[in-house]
Specification:
single chain; about 325 residues; alpha/beta; Rossmann fold; UDP-galactose 4-epimerase, domain 1; two-stranded parallel ribbon; globular; binds nicotinamide-adenine-dinucleotide
């Protein structure tokens, strides 16, 4: 039986990944500061602890492991990353985790390591035009991410690649573009735009108003969790190292997105644009390389994925 370790197994993507690996017959060890919040973990073993501490990383990454998935990070949506309030924490916490993990993977001679980077690595200058953002993989340099979160991700991509060159560590690196779905953060200050807007619509009256940060013309693309996991697994099975985009090319403005959620909810919602942290003007995945290398394309369109997510968030709002 293959053995996998999922770091960040108590988080959104990590908890779903554990389920996926179990369904594929893996023995899975999860590690995180906390257990998943919305359903019990399916990991065979779950270690609770702080991956900023070398001793916990030594315990979490054992010998004879086929695959390590490094998803643990100090992260959140625009309200967490773009206010500037959390910059030192984000850089210090995530860099410490990655420094320990890369080193321990070499010490324990693990088969392969997956590192989850982010679209936030891309230069701000290429994302000023909401209709034409540029996010091809090789446009990342000269580097100019618009957040410290993005700088840390870029540093850690280079960290894993340097461990690959100098210590023979087998790595796979993906740049996730806004992954969403059920059982993600929705009301704790770390929620990202899709969940935040689903929550606001779910909380609104049938003819209510929803506040949207910025002028609402900023664009994004959102990828459903199941599609993300398909891509991660394909990347880990193949020989292509990356860094490669894992995202959707279905770009939408945030106001249009809000109208889509409103339509799904059946409510007549008015949108009110207010000032708030928004990040770059436009961002959308560029999937040419992942399609060519892995033959992967998303299966869920935005409407289908948001229906699933809205339903789940509505239930959380009702239960509160
Ligand atoms: P998440 O916040 O739900 O999960 C991250 C997990 O890491 C959390 O459960 C958290 O408790 C854990 N963690 C943080 N610090 C820790 C520490 N010191 N010790 C142990 N555990 C710690 O985030 P997610 O959405 O599941 O994202 C997973 C990964 O993918 C992250 O690295 C994130 O940066 C990256 N990513 C996510 C997205 C997205 O849209 N969700 C986009 C780009 C990149």
């Amino acid at each position: 039986m293959k053995k996998a370790i999922v770091l960040g197994a108590g988080g959104f993507i990590g908890s779903h990944l554990v389920k996926r690996l179990k369904s594929e017959g893996y023995h899975v060890v999860g590690a995180d500061l906390k257990h998943p919040e919305y359903s019990p973990t399916q990991a065979d073993e779950f270690l609770t602890g702080d991956l900023r501490e070398a001793q916990f990383v030594e315990r979490a990454i054992s010998f004879q492991v086929d695959e390590v998935y490094q998803l643990a990070a100090d992260m959140g949506g625009a309200g967490y990353i773009f206010t500037g309030q959390n910059d030192a924490h984000v850089m210090h916490n995530s860099a410490l985790i990655n420094l320990h993990v890369a080193n321990e993977c070499v010490v324990k001679n693990v088969g392969k390591v997956f590192y989850s980077s982010s679209a936030c690595v891309y230069p701000e200058r290429n994302q000023m035009d909401p209709d034409n953002p540029k996010c091809e993989e090789n446009s990342v340099y000269p580097a100019e991410p618009d957040s410290e979160y993005g700088w840390e991700k870029l540093f850690s991509e280079r960290l894993y690649l340097s461990f690959s060159r100098n210590h023979g560590l087998s790595v796979r690196i993906a740049r996730f573009h806004n992954i969403y779905g059920p059982e993600g953060a929705w009301n704790n200050g770390k929620e990202k735009a899709p969940a935040a807007i689903c929550r606001k619509v779910a909380e609104a009256a049938d003819d209510g108003t929803v506040e949207v940060w910025g002028d609402g013309k900023q664009t994004r693309s959102f990828l459903y969790i199941d599609d993300c996991l398909d891509a991660v697994r394909l990347l880990m099975k193949g020989s292509f190292v990356g860094p490669v985009n894992i995202g959707s090319e279905e770009m939408i403005s945030i106001n249009e997105f809000t109208h889509l959620v409103a339509r799904i909810s059946g409510k007549k919602i008015a949108v009110k644009n207010i000032s708030g942290p928004t990040g770059v003007r436009g961002r959308c995945s560029d999937n040419r390389i992942i399609e060519a290398e892995l033959g992967w394309k998303p299966k869920f369109d935005l409407e289908r994925g948001i229906k699933e997510t809205f339903q789940w968030i509505s239930k959380q709002v009702e239960g509160k």
